[in-house]
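Quick question about two entries, pasted in order.
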Amino acid sequence: MRRDLLVIVICTLLSVGVINAAAAADLLVKAPVYAPPVPYNWSGLYLGANVGGAWSNRSIAGTALGDPFSTALIAGFQLGYNLQAGHFLAGVEGDFDWATFGHPKAPFSDQQKWISTFAARFGFASGRWLAYGKVGGGWAQDNVGLDVPHGTNWTTNTNGGWLFGGGLEYGFKPHLTVKLEYDFLNLGDGTTSTGPAVNWRRDTQMIKLGMNYKFQPGASNAEASTPDDPDGSSRAGQSAEELAKQSNNPFASMVVVPFRNDTLPNDGPFHGTQNVLGAKPIVPFSVNEDWNVITRTEIPLVSQPDPQTDTSINGLGDITENLYFSPVHSGIKDVHWGFGPAITVPTASDAILGSGKVSLGPALAVFYDPQNWQAGLIIKNQWSVAGAPGRDRVNELTVEVISNYVIPGGEGWHLDTHPVVTANWTAKPGQQWTVPVGGGLGHLSKLGDQAIDWSVQGYYNVVRPDNVPAWELSVFLTFLLR
């Protein structure tokens, strides 16, 4: 099981990285400029991969089980065929995903290894965008165990049911598209094969991020490009100081891939060390002459001390997708802003590494970018809207502060402070806020033509709950892609 889980986690990171890297190839290296939408041909055969999270209201005899087997990381592939007539589309699609549902819990354990669906797709296309719905069926493989006085009663079966869903898909290259999709799979109820009989519910909901390869091109290379697609020359002459500023700017007109590693010692009753390595690729693209869309995907890898034993649990946490709609011209000099939704999907590979909930809320980013220093805020509040019924609800505020000073004539050296302030509104009074204070030093370096920015920062939590360590060390490594 651990080896299968490791394979899925690796596939998850590779899939998300491929999606962002593929999108990066279509990005603008100057300020994003509007390119009029061109018709995109969605007809033809396609093959792709997907990754996401799933959750289920799994219950025994009408009683909610809750985590650890109500949420799962899923990853797999899809194959489909579309026929387009004008703006309207019809097609079929099948997919197969490995799932990590399942964890022994006496006296009943339930493991779901895979999920597969087959459905008809109906959509409406406009420019490079496709909005679609899905109706069909699906199957899942279940292993169920029940502790009985003379041993364990196991039931293994494959169950089918009906499916509906929908999503948005975007054709960013002649042969490549990306999509975000929601599916509901009704698998009905199951019953153990021998006495004492136990009934359990298996309905499953899924959110997937995927990428497809179209064997028939959706547009020519000339139509799919924009007037300012990168040729590499526009960035070559930029100084280290100019690149250092863009590495911290969430509205930079290039793909920025930051990694942040937070280490918190003396965590938990056994005084272990918590470590969170987060990748947050930022991908901008133009919508029209007035607006851009900026995507910011947060992918955490977590090492968390177990509160019950003197060991650590390692794996993938919950993935968050942020979308910011940003005006090309804010109307205020050196000021940029964006507003949009933030959605968190329960992709954690272990119950202790995630909330077990789907969370949704508004996000606002504001950034001031004058000559040598920068200051900005990324603010979001998320509430749980679905997920494992046995887990605590989510209502959390996150305020990410971005401030740095690029030293004039310092050849890329800069002073930074990037604290993340949080407030858990469901906690008791006095246990809600975490407020770190600190900062550090960074430098913009180059490996050949690749610009890389790094920074080391230390923080002290001047306000914190009783279960949060006082000190943390943060190391940043940012790749600026041309």
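Here is the second entry:
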Amino acid sequence: MRRLLLLVGALVFVDTMLYSALAPLLPHLTRELDLSKTRAGVLVAAYAAGALLGGLPGGAAAARLGPRRAVLVGLTAMGLASVGFAFASGFGGLFAARVLQGCGSAFTWAGSLTWLVATTPRERRGELLGAALGVAVFGALFGPVVGVAAALAGRGIVFGALAGLALLLAGATLRLETMPAEHASGSALRQALGNRRFAGGLLLMALPSLLLGTVAVLAPLHLARVGWGAVSIGATWLCGAALEAVQAPLVGRLSDRRGRVLPVRIALLAAALLTLGLAAGSRPLLYVPLLVLATTAYGALFTPAFALIADGAEASGLARGIAFGLMNAAWAVGALVGPAIGGAVAAVTGDWIPFLFGAGLCALALLAVRSSPRPTRAPS
């Protein structure tokens, strides 16, 4: 069990690290390749596009072929994508590498979480899943450091090393015993999609990924315009991820004790107000604290969303691999729409319109949650 938890932690750490590594590197790539704000948004969204393409296939592979094979497919994609990103000389090559990175991520997340849940005693499931998700937050924390290193030392060295890391993780995966495949039932899938907890969890998973994706494009470019470099931008993302790592277990504990709805309401209210603050496009002295607090509020929505998806899937009898595959797809939809459309709209109207739209989505979600008939609690 300990070896499996270490492997799962390493896998989700690398996945979230790759996703967040682009933030401090984006201004450097924009200058190097003369990218427009629209193309910068598309490049950020490419990872999510790959995760969306791989979401359902990754879940099906984890359920029908077994989690170990799904993880190995994901690591193969990650290694090839890292080599591509290391040596790509144009927008097309970077875009293809990011898509492949995201697709590999969908397979590794579905396979690793299915593996962990299936081999964990029920009384320790929440504890170990929380530990794995905490490591994923630290991956997001470390990602900007990788981006800064790539901006200073070159993409070839840093992403070439990540390709070697994929080989090491594949070797560790082969040393562990696998588990039998699951039965993927169409009727269970239909029942889960009609389950309020499961469907609500998927929607709640998409919203913060949309907001974070929008911020990942607009905030680094805004700070670069006022003279901030890759190191300063990376430090800002480090602060946000550090706060997210602190709040994640606290939000999880609150959702266990007071139901899933209360932390969602608090996070949505904070997210709406802070996103309105970002729409003003203030100077860094005010903009950076707002940015750090906003990303923390967005991240606080992931923990109850994950819990709602797990609760609804278990109540519906849905295969774990399919549930985690749908979770990946829901995250990917938001992470794809946010940077792609946010960057395109900002290029025409300015940053304030995408941020205003994001604040409006948070307000609408808050109204929907407030109309919920009763708090949703985890099953005892």
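Reply: Residues 22 and 147 are 6 Å apart (CA to CA). The mean pLDDT is 83. Hope that helps.
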